[in-house]
Amino acid sequence: MSPATRLAATQYREVFDRVQDIIYVRDLGGVILDINDAGSRFFGVAKDDVIGRTFHRHVDDDQAQSLKSTNTILLRDGVDRSTVELRNARGELRILESTTTLVRDDAGLPIGAYGVMRDVTDSVRDNERKTRELEEARLVHLALLPKQLPHHPHLDIAVEMRTASEVGGDYYDFVTASDGTLTIALGDATGHGLKSGIFGATAKSYFQTLATQRAPREILQTISAAFRNLGLPAIYMCMLLLRIQERQASVVAAGMPPFFVRRSDGSVEKISVAGTPLGLRRDAFDGTVIDLTPGTTLLLFSDGLPDLHDPDDRELGLDAIASCFAEGGDNAHDILQRVLRMADRWSRGCAAEDDVMLMVIRAI
């Protein structure tokens, strides 16, 4: 062996053993031909005691079956990427990401493989913990939503919400006073996730407490102050309140998108109610009054609906929603489902980037 070749071999060996990931070379039967220091430390066995052995104890155990599966993939694709579970020197079951590459001889015949394994146990378990926490938060968020729709002698109501992640930022709620006055809340916190879920829980607590005690504008002012006190930066909540007495709906809004009203003659009007999102420093909430004569229908929604994208990255927009809503319907549920079907046809399987909430209120 020439000096240059010996030097190259020495440098290769140093790199081979310094790498913190497990590196090994094996034949197709699983016999270890070489392994680095990281592999020796992981298994707690000297290199000389590993080389010449296999990871499996007999031909039918789990490791032997895994070897067969890996070889099948290697012979077909040349490389196999998988996750394996192995016990380390302390008997702990560890999760390793493994990349195995086929080795061929000068004639092109497969003779073995070399593999690199990285211990990812901590990150996998951390992700599992976060997933459990998000699932728990999602269940809490769902528990905040009303279990049933309110009964009102002059109204037919339907609502649906589709969350874009484990914890949604959209929120709706109802409170019926002793005199029959119905107050409806629709909210949309910025984004989605755990912080948005916290805003939803806070909004519900204040709304349920104040809905029968304060005017809608005062309710928004109180909730906005509560959000500022939470001290969560770069997050706020849009909200719309409807107070329905007899056949009139008083509407106050804080940053929610426009909504549509379909009159009994079939005409559709877009209603924009300006207002500052809750949680910002300036509180300015506009309002309007809508007569709920029989046949009048309201379609309210969060901005997740008009912001839906199709595969060409085009937004659904308000015009398409208005056109679909203009077709009318005999009941709130059918109208809502028709709008959702239209939205599904538009998006054609594209995942929503934000929560989508719709509510239809029809005067009867």
Quick structural overview:
This protein is α+β, with helices and mostly antiparallel strands.
What does this molecule look like?
Helix 5 (121-144) packs parallel to helix 6 (194-210) and helix 6 (194-210) runs antiparallel to helix 7. The longest helix has 24 residues, at 121-144. The termini are far apart. The chain has two domains: 3-119, PAS domain (Beta-Lactamase, 2-Layer Sandwich), CATH 3.30.450.20; 139-363, 4-Layer Sandwich (Phosphatase 2c, domain 1). Helix content is 34%, strand content 29%. It has a five-stranded antiparallel beta sheet, sandwiched between helices. The protein has 364 residues and is an alpha+beta fold. It is elongated and about 90 Å long.
H/E element sequence: HEEHHHEEEHEEEHHEEEEEEHHE
Arithmetic mean pLDDT: 89
Q: What is the tally of helical segments? A: 9
Query: How many strands, which pairing sense, and closed or not: the largest β-sheet?
Result: 5 strands, antiparallel
Instruction: Report how far apart the termini are.
Output: 96 Å
* Whole-number count of domains: 2
Instruction: Please tell me the CATH architecture of the largest domain by its name.
Output: 4-Layer Sandwich
Write the layout of secondary structure elements.
Layout: H1 3-18, E1 22-27, E2 32-35, H2 37-43, H3 47-50, H4 62-77, E3 79-87, E4 93-104, E5 110-119, H5 121-144, E6 155-162, E7 170-176, E8 182-189, H6 194-210, H7 216-230, E9 237-245, E10 248-254, E11 259-262, E12 268-271, E13 287-291, E14 297-301, H8 317-325, H9 332-347, E15 356-363
Antiparallel strand pairs: 1-2, 1-5, 3-4, 4-5, 6-15, 7-8, 8-9, 9-10, 10-13, 11-12, 11-14, 14-15
Helix pairs in contact: 5-6, 6-7
